[in-house]
Amino acid sequence: MKNLTTSLVIASLSIVSYSATSAEENMQVRLATTTSTYHSGLLDYLLPEFEKDTGYKVNVIAAGTGKSLKMGQNGDVDLVMTHAPKAEATFVDKGYGVLPRKLMYNDFVIVGPSDDPAKVGQEKSVAQVFKNIANANATFVSRGDDSGTHKKEKGLWAQTEIEPNFGGYRSVGQGMGPTLNMASEMQGYTMTDRGTWLAYHNKLSLTVLFQGDKSLFNPYQVILVNPERYPGINYQGAKVFSDWLVNSRGQQLINDFKLNGKQLFVANANEK
User: Fold this and answer.
1) pLDDT of residue 227
2) Which residues of the chain are under the pLDDT cut of 70?
3) Among residues of the chain, what percentage have pLDDT more than 90?
4) Could you identify which of 15, 106, 177, 262 might form a hypothetical disulfide with 39, taking C-beta atoms 3.0 to 4.6 angstroms apart as the criterion?
């Protein structure tokens, strides 16, 4: 009888422990995102406010858009925050993601050494900027990591009909912050999202040489991983986070986020 009582007590404690662990896991949300939202400091700014408002804890994996979408495709995260519209559309069309929502935007800029050896600062289009860099065999540091920025860069090279295999082209397989550091050290050119640039530029020997082309528009979305494909994900927690981001609280915080007085992202969830 004593052994039976002991067994029942142990079983009861195990159930309580499992329930507590399960409840704790339900308050954990796994987010895969582009490195720009991390390196710019935006998530460090937003997440404490979200956690304070809702009680959820967000675990961030900053891996670039390509890898983030792959993690969503494998059911390894609960939602993604990315910036590659074509890849995101494929992700949703194939049934990996649901409830895609516009979140915010900024733009890409071309940065390089102040003496601008490829003379890109005087050009009128980003396609001509890329042509100048290739024709001058200037150093261009590419992220080379299948991120949203890398996808955008490859699309721009395709527009020029130039293969980026000239002598000065360097594909480094790194996030935006390390890529900027390398470009600075090598006194080369690179393309960067404006948010990461504003977070890093004081530490770099680079300057913005080209901006404003409509091709450099950089929109971000938040997409939930499909719970029908992966029933074990925390869909409820992910939706709470997505709702918070696109509603007035999250959108105002995104607009309020500034570095050195400069706004890094423009919230646009409510734009048609």
Assistant:
1) 97
2) 1-25
3) 84
4) 177
123 near 90, Cβ under 8 Å?
no
CB 148 within 8 A of CB 166: no
Three-state DSSP string of 51-75: HHHHCCEEEEEECCHHHHHHHHHCC
Element (H, E) at 3: helix 2-26
Q: Please report how the helices 126-135 and 148-160 are oriented relative to each other, as an axis angle in degrees rounded to 10.
A: 80
SS3 at position 145: coil
Q: What is the distance between the alpha carbons of residues 53 and 47, in angstroms, rounded to a whole number? A: 10
pLDDT for res 64: 87
Asked if residue 85 lies in contact with residue 54, where contact means CB atoms within 8 angstroms, the answer is no
CA–CA dist 143, 172 (Å, integer): 6
Instruction: Report the half-sphere exposure of 48 (CA within 13 A, side-chain side).
Output: 4
Whole-angstrom CA distances from 9 to 2, 13, 173 are: 11, 6, 54
What is the end-to-end Cα distance of the chain in Å, rounded? 69
DSSP string, 235-272: HHHHHHHHHHHHSHHHHHHHHH-EETTEE--EE-TT--
